[in-house]
Specification:
single chain, about 210 residues, alpha+beta, five-stranded antiparallel sheet, 4 helices, globular
């Protein structure tokens, strides 16, 4: 059999063939794993909703994606309206996000029907390990920055003490704290159908290059 000549044309043909085969394999893998990943995300979200609402026997009565203008950009918030076994409205779990020190900080925050914070969970973050990453515990009930049970219906947003509020900042992570509180305040504003800019509160940013 005649040896395939080394030429630019042959090289291009081989590269194209490799690219097509690789692309096909990646597409197959993506299609094969997409559904299991989707199911897993749904399970994690469902458990997260139960956790932030502090209830187990609940139903997501409605799920709305609401877009609001935040700092001049459109931002989507997902509101999971919650009902108990009898169909009684119990409040909502709201997906909200803001920019932290290392990137996007995404939360799921639970509110009761009157506007009290029932709980929260961090869905995504890129904060510094050991510093900003402490947000998943710092603001929980009994911790230094405890926000659980805070009633936001009084029109007073959650603000870090360095900005005149009464929430203790995560040690050496004021930027993360501001981002966290902003995400919570935004979540409530959407839940209460208020204007984001008027209700977000903790929007001030430090200009220093450290947490």
């Amino acid at each position: 059999m005649k040896k395939l000549e080394s030429s630019l044309t042959n090289m291009v043909v081989v590269l194209v063939a490799v690219a097509v085969i690789t692309g096909g394999l990646l597409a197959w893998v993506n299609n094969f794993t997409a559904e299991p990943i989707k199911v897993q995300k749904e399970l994690v979200l469902a458990e997260g909703i139960k956790s932030v609402m502090g209830l187990q026997d609940i139903t997501v009565a409605a799920e709305d994606t609401i877009t609001r203008d935040v700092d001049g950009k459109e931002q989507a918030f997902v509101v999971h309206k919650i009902a108990d076994a009898s169909g009684k409205f119990m409040g909502a779990a709201v997906e909200s996000s803001s920019m932290g020190f290392g990137g996007e900080l995404k939360l799921l925050v639970g509110f009761d029907e009157s506007g009290k914070v029932l709980g929260y969970t961090v869905l995504q973050h890129a904060e510094t390990p050991g510093l900003g990453a402490k947000a998943d515990k710092w603001f929980q009930k009994g911790e230094k920055g405890d926000i659980i049970g805070r009633d936001l219906s009084d029109g007073k947003p959650l603000v870090v003490n360095k900005d005149g509020g009464d929430i203790d900042a995560i040690t050496a992570s004021t930027i993360t704290t501001r981002a966290f509180l902003k995400a919570v305040n935004q979540a409530y504003a959407v839940y209460a159908e208020q204007d984001i800019d008027a209700a977000s509160g903790a929007t001030k940013r430090a200009t220093a290059g450290a947490e």
